[in-house]
Amino acid sequence: MPKTVDDFNKSRLRSSNITVVISISLVLFLVGLFGLILINAQKYSDYIKEQLVVEAYFDEYLDPRDSAKTLKFQEETFAKIKQQNYVKQAEYISKEKASVLAKKQLGIDSDALFEEDIFPASVEVTLKPEFVDPQKIDGVVNQLKAIDGVKDVVNDNKLTIDVYNNLNRILTWIFAFSVLFLVVAIVLINNSIRLKIFSKRFIIKTMQLVGAKRRFILMPFIKEALVLGLIGALIALLALGGTWYYFTSQIGTPFVQDTNQYVLLVIIILFVGIFITIASTIFATWRFLRSNVDDLYYS
Asked: CA 229, CA 189: separation in Å to the nearest integer?
């Protein structure tokens, strides 16, 4: 049975809407993927920075025979270190534990090469990632040295600077690519919407010529853009969630590590999908509302 003109127009409209939704979904999926990479790259960067510990050694001016007094003194110093705002984690290393760690690092099982408790007690301080900065680390070391009971603080400044600079360089490139993909997403979504509106330019102009107001003409297109943008964003989020779930299950990491950042990424994807679709629809439709009839044949 041959199709009527209305059936043909409805079929073409569905095809056009499906094409726009798929375009929006694919572009937003890539944007979300780069967003996930950026979030987890930042987490990995923080994790690497947290491996750069600072070692604070206790002042040992007390009589070593008075072990109880020495232990209490060290506990008080350890408590002061943990209270510092730049400390993420602090671990007390006793003389016995220091000897065990030294043997393990050197691969020695025998006690023959070591005198009893040759290594001093200390505190391994893990700094918050924002303080692992070449411009801040020296100040942190000086503050640790100023704590009563701390004799010396050891930190590998060169290693800290190298790690910090390399991680920041990587994060900068990832952020730049994420912004680039966001711009590309805006351009591609805008082009898809403009092509859709272009196919309806004669309908828009006909409605205007018979007396319809611009707001009346715009509203159906805006509502349709809202629905298409929302559907495209939801499809992108479902595809992104499925891809991320598969990836995290394969490498054995939690699906969600920071709820706030993941929620922010979802909001950004929804915002880009809906806002850009509506904005592009308004600009494209407005262009034909302001044009002459003759211009429609050469647009």
From this structure: 9
